[in-house]
Amino acid sequence: MCPVNTPHRDGTTHVILAPQDFIARLAALVPGPRSHLTRYHGVFAPHAKWRSLIVPGKPPAPAAERTPAERHKAMTWAQRLARVFRIDVTRCEYCGGPVRIIASLTDPGVLERILAARNGAELHGPARGPPQGELALG
Question: Which of 70, 73, 116, 124 supports an S-S bond with 66, CB 3.0-4.6 Å?
């Protein structure tokens, strides 16, 4: 049963839906993967001819004038960490000096051996369920 915010003209205050109908209505509200939530049309569209005359700011250079590196420039992992978590991994937290990457370890076997030799810890702890308080049933 779904309550209606304001009664309809005929006085209906609730709508009774089958579970599949309810899920279908909810699914219609979910945007598709990798799609923007706001879409612009007309002169506000990204590649509109007159967009630079309406939208403030410097218009980007045409794609033909940019180099391939400029067209495909992406943020580094350090820039992403700084933007999302507000931490600067390029500076030492103790002395403030620059940090360099000297190795990138991706093999789980190597990582487990290093951690085991360092402090007897394993890469992954034992599996456990999520933390849960007391359930009030009844």
Answer: 70
Q: What is the pTM of this model?
A: 0.29
C-alpha to C-alpha distance for 75 and 52, rounded to whole angstroms? 25
Distances in Å between the alpha carbon of 7 and those of 11, 16, 18, 119?
5, 14, 21, 65
Q: Which residue has the tokens 């915010």?
A: 5
Closest-CA residue to 55 (of 42, 37, 64, 67): 42
Whether residue 123 has pLDDT greater than 60: no
Spatial separation of the C-alpha atoms in residues 110 and 117, rounded to whole Å? 11
**How many Cα atoms occupy the beta-carbon half-sphere of 103 within 13 Å?**
5
Helices and strands in the chain, H and E counts: 5, 2
Distances (CA, A) of 29 to 3, 16, 20, 32, 42: 18, 19, 15, 9, 24
Summarised one tens digit per residue, pLDDT across range 40-98 is: 888 888 888 888 888 777 655 565 676 777 766 777 788 888 888 888 888 888 888 99
Q: How wide is the angle at C-alpha 132 spanned by C-alphas 126 and 136, nearest 5°?
A: 150
d(CA 109, CA 94): 30
